[in-house]
Each structure stands twice: as C-alpha cells, then as structure tokens.
C-alpha cells in the first residue's frame, strides 16, 4: 500500500520541477504553478483525496520554518539594519491595519459577524516570505537596496503577528461574550511575551549554532544537516515555551548567516535546494487539501475582497506605516504592490477549520481564493511594476560565469573559478590586479600555471585565490558587456560628482537649503555614508536639500567611488499622484498655512 503513495508523491514533485522550466520561460509565478499542480491532482482533478487539515498544517509549518531560516540566513545584516524600523513597523502595525481594513470589507461583502470578518483579515494580513523571496531573488529583480531590504525583512518577520492575531481572534469567537473580556486583557501581554521570547531565543540559538559549528568537528556533508536540524529544534522548543517559533528561526538564520559560520558555502547550497523542496512540498500539500468545486459559489465576492485588499487595504496600511521614514512615492507604491499572499494565509486558514469553527470551511475557501488572486494579479506584474516605477537598478556589468569553492575552516580567501567570456575586459587585454592571485588556467581540457598560459583566451577557466571583498571588482574584468534596459542617466542622474569634494561646494553651487550645520565640514562621500548607516551599495539614494545624490560605483573597500546627481522633480516619469511622503505633506501644510495668513 505504501508504494502507490511514494509513486504519487514523487511524481507530483517531479511534475512541479519539470513545469518550472515553462514557468521561467513565460514569466509565471512559480509558486502558483506548484499550487495549481496540487489542485489539479486533488479530488476535483485526478481524484486524490486528502482532507487531513492537521497533517497539512504540520507539513506547512515545518516547510515554513525551513524557508524562514533560509530567508534570515540570506539577509545581510546591513540590509536588516537599514530597513529594520520601517520593516518592523509594517510587520506589526501594518499587519494590524491590513487585518482591520480587510475585516471591514469582509463584513459588508460576506455578511460575516464582525469578529469572524476580522479573523479573515488576520488570516490574509501578512505577506508571504516564500513568494516575496522567490520573486525578488530567484526572479532576478535588482531593486534599490532600501526597497528590497524593507520587503525582505517585512515578509520574513510579519508572520508572527498574523499568527498571533488569528489565534487570539479565534479564541475570542470560541470563548463567547462571557469570556471575551479576559481574552482581550491578555492580548497585549501575550503578544509581548511571544515576540520577546521569539527574538531572544532566536538570537541565543543563532549564536549557539555558530559556536557549535566552530567547535564540533564533523564530516563536511554533516554540517548543513546538523545546523538545519538544530534550527528546527529551536523552532519547536520556542513554540513549546510560549514564544514565536517562526520569529525565532528567522532571527537564528539572520545571526548564523552574518557570523561567518563554519561551512558557509556548503550550508548555503544545501539550504537553497532544501528550500525549493520545502516550497514544493508545502504548496502541493495545500493544493491537495483544497476542493475547487466549493469555490464556485463564493468566487466573485472573494475575488472582490482580494481586489480590495490589493488596491486599498494593503496600500493604505503601507502608506500610513511608512510616512515617518521618508520613502518616495514610487517606493511606497511598489512596497504596497508587493504584498503577495501565499502559503501562510492558507496555513492560517486551516486553524479555524481544524478548531471546528462553524464557518471554518468558508474562511478557508475565501483565503484560498485570495491567495490565488494575489499570485495571479501581483505575481505576474512585479517586474513590470518595478520597471514602470523606475526602481530597477540598471545593470553595471554583463553576465559573469563564476563558481566559488569553499576553503576549510575560516580562511580569509576564497578559491574562485572564472570562465573567460567573449568581449570581456580580460580578453581585450585588461591586466589582472596584483592583489588577485591567479594560480591555474584550464584551456581545452589541459591545465597550466597562469604564468605560462600567455594571453587569456575565450572559454579559459581561471582559478585564483581572492579576498571576498574584492570579488565584485574581478566580476567587472570577467564580465561580458552590459546590455542596459534602462537609460543610465534616468536612474543615476545626468551629472556625475566626485564624492571626495566638500559638501559645502555642492551646497553653494546649487543653492541648497535645509542642510544641518553639522554636515557642512564633511565630504560628499562622508555625508552619504553617514546617512546610509555606514555602508553604501550601487543605487542607494540620499536626499540633500532639493537634489538626490545617487551612488554610481563603490570600491572594493566599500568606499563611494562615483556619485550621480538628480533634481528632486526628476524622480521618474511614472511618479504616482498617490502616497504623499511625510516631507511632501509638511510642505503642503506650510503652503496652506502661509496662504491662510496672507488672506
């Protein structure tokens, strides 16, 4: 009896993997493909009957723990610091506002009681980490660092708030009016305890993982298995003691990924493959659990609710949360648009179903349709929306064929293998810098020392030992010419500045105002680095009075090498008449007050 289960399960996974090639080719949201295969294989398709909500929730929770650990592991600490305040605001207050607004719409569209309507809002209140990370990273969208970091940190940290709201509202409904007052009294304390325990245990668990990996000697292939097993243990333990296991495993991944953990490259490759498997397993399971024939009666009102969530509830919550943080209109609009609902919303929809709530099946079906609508509407349009809003960072170099090989222990260098491609600078005669240590060239299947290889030829493999901070400089030498899809001047500004020049010269040249006196003795580079939190990446922007300063290039040491200048009114051709920033609101209020005094 078990062999048909193995056959069907592995066949569905294989079908998902093979279908991914078509999804990449035609730009389809891959997670929607996985979900659709599960739906097609279910009882309304091939006839596979699966209705165990508890096991589906278990599989989904385990898969989500793996995905969140990988999300944290792949998030750079600089990105987290830069986006922590706005992202945490979105992950807490933003989820609460979204849930409340969706609850209002659900109450009027479906006629649900208020608490059940708000429960539905909590179920679909958070963005999905798997969907967002896939579309932003695997999808190859290069965004401004602040926007990308905000979306990634928000999607990785907002699930605990949605889970907490869902559980509390469900307890309120099941407790009835008599016990509801006590549940409300425990709300604030319970949230603080869950988030506090989750964050503290996440940091402690992450540092314990790093320390254990340094001190315990294992066979190389066992390191990734041990680290991931420990992360899942942390997830389960924190949940048992009353904390948020999802937050804990994300924070542990963040700590481990930024602490130089032993076996980093092997663990990175292992997590990448296992995360794909977790996403396929989770979406296939949730696809099998649904019964599409039950969707027909509620399809139109559920789609209407999904549209309201996408076009009003999420944008309103994002705009209110980001007002204090100085985001531009286009940035706020894009963050509002990338509010994809995914597996988390379906998982939360299982909770009232498993708890025996009378309307549990209805809430689950509505949440499912909202997820499908979100993936269809937003999943197809992320890249066009980013391009239309002018947020895609133009490519600075063309494709690079490079493989990194990990050295034992915590070596200060990496062994990098480059393939020499057509029209790359090294093929056209550009010399390698002296700090690069080329040791081997493989040409036509024969290996030779670099000193005796002569001039590099196309398709040569060049092996060299390089410090990690200099790898991106070598990428430029081994890259093919960039094929720009966006006008360089439109994004980086029409004027190029020397960042070593004094800031006061820029202020005098353009008559800039509103620059605090403490910055007047700084260089342009120092001013920008201070405003960016100490580090800069290509595409970062800093407002300086009436102009924007844009990082064009960064040296291997992390210093700003070239700066572009753009006037504020040239932010982009697709600027929306929505999402006024806090600065624009203050200017508008001052103008209105000035007119009032004159009259």
Kindly describe this structure.
- InterPro entries: Cation/H_exchanger_TM, Na+/solute_symporter_sf, Transptr-assoc_dom.
- It is a multi-pass membrane protein.
- The chain crosses the membrane at residues 55-73, 85-111, 117-140, 161-181, 187-210, 222-241, 247-267, 274-292, 298-322, 334-356, 362-382.
- Keywords: Antiport, Cell membrane, Ion transport, Membrane, Transmembrane, Transmembrane helix, Transport.
- The protein is α+β, with helices and mostly antiparallel strands.
- The chain has 3 domains: 2-47 and 88-192 and 264-388, Na+/H+ antiporter like fold, CATH 1.20.1530; 402-478, Regulator of K+ conductance, C-terminal domain (Alpha-Beta Plaits, 2-Layer Sandwich), CATH 3.30.70.1450; 488-598, Uridine Diphospho-n-acetylenolpyruvylglucosamine Reductase, domain 3 (2-Layer Sandwich).
- The protein has helices spanning 2-26, 30-41, 53-73, 77-110, 114-123, 129-138, 145-157, 159-215, 222-240, 245-257, 264-289, 299-322, 329-337, 343-354, 360-377, 382-388, 471-478, 488-492, 503-510, 524-531, 582-598, and strands spanning 402-405, 414-419, 437-443, 446-449, 461-466, 495-497, 541-544, 547-554, 560-567.
- Strands 1-2-5-3-4 form a 5-stranded antiparallel beta sheet, with helices on one face.
- Helix 1 (2-26) runs antiparallel to helix 2 (30-41), helix 3 runs antiparallel to helix 11 and helix 4 (77-110) runs antiparallel to helix 8 (159-215).
- The radius of gyration is 26 Å and the shape is globular.
- It starts with a helix and ends with a helix.
- The model is unreliable at 569-574 (pLDDT under 50).
């Amino acid at each position: 009896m078990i062999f048909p289960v193995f056959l069907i399960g592995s066949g569905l996974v294989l079908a998902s993997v093979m279908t991914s090639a078509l999804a990449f080719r035609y730009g389809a949201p891959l997670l929607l493909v996985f979900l659709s295969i599960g739906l097609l294989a279910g009882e309304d398709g091939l006839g596979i009957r699966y209705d165990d909500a508890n096991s589906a929730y278990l599989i989904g929770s385990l898969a989500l723990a793996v995905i969140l650990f990988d999300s944290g592991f792949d998030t750079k600490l600089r990105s987290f610091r830069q986006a922590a305040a706005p992202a945490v605001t979105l992950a807490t207050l933003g989820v609460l506002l979204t849930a409340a607004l969706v609850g209002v719409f659900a109450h009027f569209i479906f006629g649900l009681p208020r608490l059940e309507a708000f429960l539905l809002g909590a179920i679909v209140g958070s963005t999905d980490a798997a969907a967002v990370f896939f579309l932003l990273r695997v999808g190859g969208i290069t965004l401004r660092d602040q926007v990308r970091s905000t979306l990634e940190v928000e999607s990785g940290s907002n699930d605990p708030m949605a889970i907490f709201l869902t559980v509390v509202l469900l307890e309120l409904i099941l407790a009835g009016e008599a016990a509801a007052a006590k549940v409300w009294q425990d709300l604030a304390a319970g949230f603080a305890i869950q988030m506090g325990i989750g964050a503290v245990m996440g940091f402690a668990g992450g540092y314990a993982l790093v320390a254990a990996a340094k001190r315990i000697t294992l066979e190389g292939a066992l390191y990734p298995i041990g680290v991931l097993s420990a992360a899942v243990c942390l997830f389960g333990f924190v949940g048992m003691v009353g904390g948020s296991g999802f937050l804990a495993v994300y924070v542990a991944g963040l700590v481990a990924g930024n602490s130089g953990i032993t076996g980093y490259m092997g663990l990175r490759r292992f997590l990448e493959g296992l995360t794909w498997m977790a996403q396929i397993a989770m979406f296939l399971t949730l696809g099998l659990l649904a019964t599409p024939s039950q969707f027909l009666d509620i399809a139109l009102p559920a789609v209407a609710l999904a549209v309201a969530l996408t076009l009003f509830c999420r944008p309103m919550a994002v705009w209110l949360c980001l007002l204090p943080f100085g985001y531009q209109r286009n940035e706020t609009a894009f963050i509002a648009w990338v509010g994809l609902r995914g597996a988390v919303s379906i998982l939360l929809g299982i909770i009232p179903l498993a708890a025996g709530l009378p309307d549990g099946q209805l809430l689950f079906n509505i949440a499912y349709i909202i997820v499908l609508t979100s993936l269809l509407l937003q999943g197809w349009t992320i890249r066009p929306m980013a391009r239309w809003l002018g947020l895609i960072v133009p490519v600075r170099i063309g494709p690079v064929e490079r493989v990194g090989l990990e050295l034992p222990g915590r070596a200060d260098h990496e062994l990098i293998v480059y393939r020499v491609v057509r029209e790359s600078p090294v093929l056209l005669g550009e010399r390698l810098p002296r700090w690069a240590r080329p040791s081997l060239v493989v040409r036509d299947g024969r290996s030779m020392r670099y000193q005796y290889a002569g001039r590099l030829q196309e398709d040569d493999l060049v092996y060299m030992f390089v410090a990690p901070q200099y790898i991106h400089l070598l990428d430029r030498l081994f890259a093919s010419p960039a094929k720009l899809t966006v006008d360089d001047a439109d994004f980086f500004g029409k004027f190029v500045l020397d960042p070593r020049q004094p800031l006061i010269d820029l202020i005098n040249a353009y008559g800039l105002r509103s620059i605090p006196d403490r910055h007047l003795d700084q260089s342009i580079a120092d001013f920008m680095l201070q405003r960016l939190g100490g580090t800069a990446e290509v595409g970062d922007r800093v407002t300086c009075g009436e102009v924007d300063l844009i990082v064009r290039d960064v040296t291997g040491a992390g210093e700003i090498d070239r700066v572009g200048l753009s006037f504020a009114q040239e932010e982009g051709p697709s600027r929306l008449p929505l999402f006024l920033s806090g600065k624009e609101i203050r200017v508008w209020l001052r103008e209105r007050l000035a007119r009032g005094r004159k009259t």
